[in-house]
Design brief:
Elements lengths: L9 H12 L2 H13 L3 H29 L3 H8 L7 H32 L10 H11 L1 H19 L3 H28 L5 H8 L8 H15 L5 H6 L8 H29 L14 H7 L4 H32 L6 H20 L15 H28 L2 H8 L3 H31 L1
Protein name: Sodium-dependent transporter
Subcellular location: Membrane
Organism: Psychrobacillus glaciei
């Protein structure tokens, strides 16, 4: 029987964990959430929520994972034998499965747009070209299923290679490349005439947006963008050696997530404002507005190709963490079954994702709670799965693990340990419950 795999280096783990966090949440979701919630005030609240709430929960996942040294289900059984805490692991399995089923659909859209950009098929002439194109892409059953299938194949291929040779090796070149692409695109965006308005939107506060609604949206974005609540970070941390410093690793991942999110804003908003588009265009900002923006700038086709390559890389770094959760729980300690499990579960996820892929086309007449199948899958994971998972992980770290166990894992000074313990015991659970209740009210009332 093969031995359990491990990350070969601290930087490899940080890049893989940051990659899990930096995906559609940072590049697709953050810009349109900022655009529809006042820009700079949302950014400030997002940073505060990430440091004060997201980082402590992320650290809790790191502690549970490294201490358990097993998949999330087996890890919780080891840390709390005979108690039902292991259900947190199964919750991560189920919700990661669902997330990847519709996440891969968006990955397929990105592949479709990348191919169109490379073949110079994104040069619209009419005002409605890009909106019509987006609707055409997402409603074409053959195109969305092929795109979803190719994206799932790439994810399976990486995960089947294992931790050190698959996930870590891939993250070590994908993440630096992603950062380089971001810098190049941000420089181009910032050099456009009129770009200063986009910078002001991101960094000069309009305090009229400082309210509970914006704060709750920012907190929800923190959970989504850090990948906390589905045991992704528990899974990755379980492959860590004991000498790795968890505090600095969690801080590095959080700061990278904040930095990439702001970089995404610097790529998008200066260009959007410079060319007279609206920042509050919602989810279509990336697929409808950006192609129109890049069309109007010098070497726009090149930068558009670069952007969709960047978006694809970021989406893949998140998707591999979702599949790794499912695979690690599925194989338990039978590590020689990794490759087969990656293919089997990956194919199952593709099949489960087919209704989401078709929900804007042939299945567009099917609705659940007035939502499309795709939107419903997104809703039950982001409004139920992530908050509930984060809540129970926070409670487990705060009430089940002893102070002495936490001290051994964290190696923090007394003040920082005490502050972190207060947050995961009291502040984080209250914040999570508020977000959870708000999500329910938004749909049912």
């Amino acid at each position: 029987m093969e031995e359990r795999d491990h990350f070969g280096s601290k930087i490899g783990f940080i890049l893989a964990a940051a990659g899990s966090a930096i995906g559609l949440g940072a590049i697709w979701m953050f810009p349109y959430m900022a655009g529809t919630n006042g820009g700079s005030v949302f950014v400030i609240l997002f940073i505060v929520c990430t440091i004060l709430i997201g980082l402590p929960i992320l650290l809790a996942e790191f502690i549970i994972g490294r201490k358990g040294q097993a998949d999330p289900v087996s890890g919780f059984k080891k840390l709390a034998p005979g108690k039902p805490w292991f259900l947190i692991g199964w919750s991560g399995f189920i919700f990661s499965f669902i997330i990847l089923s519709f996440y891969s659909v968006v990955g397929g859209w990105i592949l479709s747009y990348l191919i169109r950009a490379i073949t110079f098929s994104l040069n619209g002439t009419s005002e409605t070209f890009y909106e019509d194109l987006f609707n055409t892409v997402i409603s074409n059953p053959l195109e969305v299923l092929i795109g979803q299938g190719v994206f799932i194949f790439l994810t399976i291929w990486i995960v089947s290679g294992g931790i050190k040779s698959g996930i870590e090796k891939t993250s070590k070149w994908m993440m630096p490349l992603l950062l380089i692409f971001f810098v190049v695109l941000a420089i181009r965006s910032l050099t456009l005439e009129g770009a200063m308005e986009g910078i002001k939107f991101l960094f000069v506060p309009d305090w009229s947006y400082l309210n509970w609604k914006t704060a709750l949206v920012a907190l929800g974005q923190t959970f989504f963008s850090l990948s906390v609540g589905v045991s992704a970070m528990i899974t990755y941390a379980s492959y860590l050696p004991k000498e790795t410093k968890l505090g600095s690793s969690a801080l590095s991942v959080s700061l990278l997530n904040i930095g990439i999110s702001i970089m995404a804003g610097l790529v998008i908003f200066p260009a959007v404002f410079a060319l007279g588009f609206s920042p509050d265009s919602g989810p279509g900002l990336v697929f409808i507005i950006l192609p129109a923006v890049f069309k109007q700038i010098l070497f726009g086709q090149f930068f558009l190709i670069l952007f969709f390559i960047l978006l694809l890389l970021a989406t893949l770094t998140s998707s591999i963490s979702m599949l790794e959760i499912v695979v690690s729980i599925g194989i338990k300690s039978k590590y020689d079954r990794r490759k087969r499990a990656a293919w089997v579960y990956g194919i199952y996820i593709f099949i489960v994702g087919i209704p989401s892929a078709l929900s804007f086309g042939v299945l567009s007449n099917i609705h659940i709670l007035s939502m499309s199948i795709f939107d419903f899958a997104d809703f039950i994971t982001s409004s139920f799965g992530l908050p509930l998972g984060a809540l129970f992980i926070s409670l487990f770290a705060g009430y089940v693990l002893s102070k002495s166990e936490l001290s051994k894992e964290l190696k923090l000074n007394t003040f920082l340990l005490h502050a972190w313990h207060i947050i995961v015991r009291y502040a984080a659970p209250v914040a999570i419950i508020i977000v959870f209740v708000q999500g329910i009210i938004k749909v049912f009332f």
